[in-house]
Amino acid sequence: MDTIDTNTVQKWYIIFRKTDLKHWIFKWLDPEFQHCYAVKESPGGEFWIILDSKNCYTDVTIESKINYPLIRDLDPDSVILSIRAIIDPDNYRYTLCVSNCVEVCKSVLGIKAFWCWTPYQLYKRLLSCQVH
Fold first, then answer.
1. Structurally, how many domains does the chain consist of?
2. Is residue 3 part of a domain?
3. Average pLDDT, the chain
4. 52 SS3 class
């Protein structure tokens, strides 16, 4: 019997950078990997959809690709990874988590990695294997 593939494939960019946010934890984080956020192209490719978790809220913005034609133009001093996420709707995520920028990025990528809490840990995980 044939199985039906119900996975969703999405292309995301995960952007790692220094942060201007104020919190005591940032002094313990790698300076280049204090914050991360997720970006993807809109359907039709005219805009960048930016999902950025801040200290006390999550900011969702849209930027025109006329103003920012390349992903690098959004954040020139950052580290950017292009990720092809394969989202399995039957792969349930943990509900207990640290609510931070890393958790938001893991959520859009469909990653179940309870002990991955810092931007640098996420960066290393994404480098070590293509996400699904």
1. 1
2. no
3. 85
4. strand
